[in-house]
Amino acid sequence: MAPKLPSSGDKANKAAKAVAKGTFSNVTKKVRTNTTFRRPKTLSLARKPAYPRKSVTSLPRLDAHKIIVAPLNTESAMKKIEENNTLVFIVDIKSNKRQIKEAIKTLYDVQAININTLIRPDGTKKAYIRLSPDVDALDVANTIGYV
Predict the structure, then answer these.
(1) What is the pLDDT of residue 129?
(2) Cα dist from 91 to 42, 101, 111, 133, whole Å
(3) Which of 26, 98, 108, 114 has a C-alpha 20 to 30 A away from that of 7?
(4) Strand order in the sheet with 68-71
(5) Whole-angstrom Cα distance, residue 100 to residue 96?
(6) CA angle 10, 16, 22 (to 5 degrees)
(7) Are 70 and 89 in contact (CB under 8 A)?
(8) What is the β-pairing status of strands 86-91 and 112-119?
(9) pLDDT per residue as tens digits for the range 89-104
(10) SS3 call for 134
């Protein structure tokens, strides 16, 4: 027996029924088992700015020459150079020990073992920079030119 072809009247009846009743009649509600609703994570695209917000990028505020202000050559500083292999500098108040260490390395090509800092009563920062044993602090002080 040949399959029965739907007539045009059957198609029209189905379409009318779909319009009247709607095609999504068997939609079930999701059963919520928890009291908190967690928003689903959706696609978050990376920003694609049409133009840069700053026309010129700013240079770093503290470079090596700004961090190291001046060497200190008091009697106690000279004693530190001779006995403890330590250089004494006045440094920028906003600089930290890591920045001071990098500045010493770039300016004078010496390796600092440790750095102690203090803020003096006049508001400046003083740094005691202990050099590695293979470098003599007196030689570095001579190259800087304050001995």
Answers:
(1) 97
(2) 50, 11, 17, 23
(3) 26
(4) 68-71, 86-91, 125-131, 112-119
(5) 6
(6) 125
(7) yes
(8) unpaired
(9) 999 999 999 999 999 9
(10) coil
Q: How many CB atoms lie within 10 A of CB 124?
A: 15
Q: Which residues pair with 89 in a beta bridge?
A: 71, 127
Distance from C-alpha of 83 to C-alpha of 16, rounded to nearest angstrom: 103
Distance in angstroms (rounded) separating the CA atoms of residues 102 and 67: 10
Q: Calculate ∠ Cα 84-90-92, nearest 5°.
A: 130
Residues facing 130 on adjacent strands = 86, 114
Within 8 A by CB and 6+ apart from 97, the residues are 115, 117, 127
Interior angle at CA 110, CA 105 and CA 112, nearest 5:
80
pLDDT tens column, 16-56: 888 887 767 677 888 889 999 999 999 999 999 999 898 88
pLDDT at 15: 85
How far apart are the C-alpha atoms of 119 and 23, rounded to whole Å?
Answer: 79
Average pLDDT, the chain: 90
- Max mean pLDDT among 10-14, 61-65, 120-124 falls in 120-124
